[in-house]
# Entry
Amino acid sequence: MDFWPEFLASSWGREFVAGGLGGMAGVVSGYPLDSLRIMQQHSRSGSAMTILRRVIATEGPGALYRGMGAPLASVTFQNAMVFQIYADLSRACDPLVAAKDPPSYKGVALGGVGTGAIQSLMLAPVELVKIRLQLQRKSYGETQPTNCYKGPVSVVKSICRTEGIRGLYRGLTITVLRDAPSHGVYFSTYEYMREQLHPGCRKTGQESLRTMLVAGGLAGVASWVCCYPLDVVKTRLQAQSSSSPQKYSGIVDCFVKSVKEEGQGVLWRGLGTAVSRAFVVNGAIFAAYEFALRYLCNNNGHGTIQTENTG
# Structure
């Protein structure tokens, strides 16, 4: 009966709950744009608006939320671990910084890179399932999707049956190559921008809601821009299954063939959608995370959140 009070009294427990709430806020707010991005990356042609109109006309708005169960089901644990790992690594990477001071920018960058590499182990299977569901289509005149996946569990069973457990980690290498540097950029940008927008807030922890939304949004945009070509390659590799012809044999082969067949622009296809989504999602993630964490810490007299920008 005392589990929750004791759990929330610990730093790890508060990080877990706050990280989970932040992650869920990000998934719900940005999932339709994420589906649109995946469709653009996998498509050979068509603007975001053309694809959006076609999907809504043939399948309805609900198609943009297809596959959301997989990230929602895992996001609490994943996001909690990401923020907890980052907090520990950012300190460990620069131990000369006093405990009462915020981590140095060096620690933030290195901690972010390590966090991205570690979280890829959790993220790769989830994104694989999500991509398979997002790319599932109803052909014109058909009432059932061509792949007939009924949900995340159906996709997992299909992959394990045809490709084995290793099949769930298709695209792991490219996920690590994408997420390690992008997380370094992500956390560095957030910490730098929040300090620029609200000087002194890294030490006081009293930035405004507007600062969190803008800094979080810009962090998301920066992290996507720096890794986007790798994300295009990852989508194409994870969209392949053993039951269909293998167009790409690996990362380099996918990169070379994609550029040769569709031009260099293919590596940036869907970037506008991804950037728009990134700003919304990551603003929501950091705002929800900070609100939840400070609410949970409130009884202990920890920081407060300002609703007006005092900087």
Observations:
- Residues 138-145, 301-311 have pLDDT under 50 and may be disordered.
- Residues 62 and 228 are 26 Å apart (CA to CA).
- DSSP finds eleven helices and no strands in the chain.
